[in-house]
Records
---
Amino acid sequence: MACRPPPPATPPPEPAALPEALAWITGALERLREAGLERPRRVRAGRQGREVELDGRRLVNFGSNDYLGLAGDVRLTRAASRAACAEGFGAGASPLVSGHSAVHAALEGALARLLGTSDALLFPSGFAANAATIAALVGPDDLVASDERNHASIIDGCRLSRATVVVYPHRDVATLGRILAASPARRRLVVTDTLFSMDGSVAPLADLADACERHGAMLLADEAHATGIFGARGSGLVEATGTAAGVHVRVGTLSKALGAAGGFVAGHPRLVDWLRHAARGYVFSTAHPPAVAGAALEALAVVAAEPERRTGLLERAAGFRDRLRRGGLDLGAAEAQIVPVVVGGAEAALALAARLAAEGMFVPAIRPPSVAPGRCLVRASLAWHHDDADLDRLAAALLAAAGCGGRHP
Ligand code: PMP
């Protein structure tokens, strides 16, 4: 497929003087800069894959959630074009009005089949899926218990719901049990990531499901980083751990391993019917473009046809983690394709990321608000397209930077 790059951006007009009412922003940005928390954007050129071009530099790409290498796969581009040809580009309206097209319906069906649920519902993003679903399940008379390392979209959903929110220590089911036992709330909801995005740790799904069953609580699991990666069919950690019967609300995203965009919730048809009526991020937002749904459908076909992408990735990731741990690096509870190396302060994380970039590898520094202050890290996202030599090079560089015995631990 011949692709032309987009035309260069026309520079915007010079800014006018900052209005007095916005003057506070100058100080707020200054404080971020002083704390080492400024977040400049890099401009990516062209398709990403094993390598990525950022601000004109080509680097080996350890900084993307494109775990299966599908974001730049031409099969998705072609599927998107076919869907756009058939249905036009924009969805034009929210799904309950006229935005829900044949390709959206096909994708919901394919997701429900993949997850083994009877129904599924698409959202414009994974963020919207979490935020809108939580707020549709609990309200001011209810309790929501949330793992302290959950994603921002879960945190915002909890706040939006106006339920009483109790945050429990990371993966601490005993504390969670006490919280549930002590709550007089009308309804109780437990929310957790399945694969934690900044830790690479995995939720104790079977124990969480047991606790919820014992206390009559609903369990919502966000599979954003596990969809497409775990389980015999690739549907996620709920499938891999055999906990489908105890996880009532299964959230996922199409924007990471599936290389497309959008979020979804899968579960019992009654649940999905309720969300269709009550999840405001679904009801009041334009359906995502049919082309995006077409690309996601194609990604699901690749996940089914090429299981070696996920099995190969998980195998190489296990070897990579072993090597770093044997070399003395502390990876916390990481046990998947997300490998965080915690360094402490923001400046230290930035310095390590800069050092890795100088060696030709993009491994982003992660700082607050994505992690707690003092827990800054560099986060290596491993993907199917990384070969042994890439992983050797990254492992050696991380061990050398930490003074852990250099190239051959
Ligand atoms: N949940 C988790 C755990 C995430 O990491 C993210 C994205 N960073 C989301 C949800 C939101 O998904 P999306 O990017 O599709 O909005």
Note: The pocket of 4'-deoxy-4'-aminopyridoxal-5'-phosphate is lined by residues 125-127, 130, 151, 153, 193, 197, 222, 224-225, 253, 255, 263 (CB under 6 Å).
---
Amino acid sequence: MSNLTESLIKMEKHNSIFEQQIRKLDVPICKVFGNMKSLSPVEFSETGETLSTKDTAQVNESFKNCVKASGNKVLAATGTNKNPLSKKRVAVLFSGGPAPGGHNVVAGLYKILGKENTLLGVKAGPKGLLEGDLFEITAADIDSIMNTGGFDFLGSDRTKIKSEEQFLSVKKTCLNHKLDAIVVIGGDDSNTNAAILAEYLSSDIKEDGSGVQVIGVPKTIDGDLQIGDLLPISFGFDTATKIYSELVGNILQDTPSSRKYWHFVKLMGRSASHVALEVALQTKPAVALISEEVSEKKMSLAEIVESIAKVVIERSNKGINHGVVLVPEGIIEFIPEMTSLIEELNEKIAVYEKEMHNLSGVEKREFIYSKLTAQHAQLMATLPDYIEDMLLAERDSHGNLQVSLIPTEQLLIDMVKSSIKATDPKVPFKTLNHFFGYEGRCGAPSLFDAAYCLNLGLTAASLILSGKTGYMASICDLNSGGKPVAIPLTGLLNIERRHGKDEMVIEKALAKTDSEAFKYFAERRNIWAKEDLFASPGPRQLWGPASKQTPVTVALNRKYSNLDFKIGE
Ligand code: FBP
């Protein structure tokens, strides 16, 4: 075996030159925790801010213990906790889709819990919690996962813990593993789960009658878990959008080189268009659709198609027969006529779940036509079969339509093609479609996410060692050192219709058309439509001048004076 082949074999199992180097990355820490060599848990005090939603009165009734303990008051780190709790057994789990940086949250927890406490990993998400599939995390584990992408260290799933039987299984796991606390790393639905668990586990769980603490950590590449200045963004968004921006930038670079294609790129983000908006701001394509604007302006599918066809024709008249169209993954649910169709489908699928279970695609369509109102049945019949089938596909365990499976970009291509053929058949319109989603969810975290996540872990562990429960950890003031805060989960809950029922959930933070980021985009997009002004941001950097970049939407919305994040400075 040559030296080269020997060194190639050494690179197997997460040991590429890149992976070896990122483990050694210098990750900035909020000053209140000390420094990497000597980290201390922090204590928290009230900031004076109390959270509420339109349904707070009802939520307070259902979450009596947690609301009594937190008063829905926001907390902030004030200094070192000189009397932290000890001998705690803490379980950590990932919930929902993966997001870059999750491993650093686990590392942050471990580094604060130290040798005085025990950190247990729950395998395969909430399901693993029900099954009691836990193992003790070691220092060697932390060294190997530090700054790496993916959720593979623990695994994840989307089980919603809601039945009495499931709650009893969680209780059993808590007792069997002598747990004192659980950390749920997840998105809006998973943090709703965390709020419900926190209330259920708040007392009478352990033999001495005490409870098990629950702390949430805000994850999702979709970026739809945001709470103003308190939670500027969920983790994973920065890395995922940097990866998509690199890919879109490369495609944009190809368009005036080959001069013949229109690329339709669907970008992940189940409901909100934060990902599409961020990628548009980083790359400046000819067209970027924003679902929230479509809904607000009540744009029909035909109007969306016309708006794209208009740009294609105008550019063609100037001799530009190429371009890029960004399509947010969830747009279909925001087109008014589709919104009401999907709402009715969600209700009907929930009611007729059993009857529809074993039907084939064609049978399902025929069955549902007979159950829908005439107007919706008619609309459904105008859609291509590949869209109909996906609209009827099984919902996830939280009742969500699986929009990542719907080829909306292909639907738009087909419709823009027919529109151009009807109005201006001489305009060349060669197309290619892409879906960027899974490519970005497990990349190694950007420096932003590596730092953000490590500090989120340090915050969550500090909350546990301060005896807190029912909070979500966050880091705010990202442009001025970073401040660890604790957000009461009950202060975020409101009532929404899900799966044909009213449920208390954390509201998804959609992109706002009156936000600074959207207003800036709206100002520039007509100029980007007319000529090629795109930028190619290149691969994300972990070292050097381009490594310290905050997401553009966050910097604009939070009115930062530049793009630099300054955690630890
Ligand atoms: P989370 O909200 O759980 O973070 O997941 C987000 C997401 O990546 C969406 O953007 C996408 O619609 C969905 O997951 C796809 O999920 P799956 O892994 O089940 O295909």
Note: The CA atoms of residues 261 and 430 lie 5 Å apart.
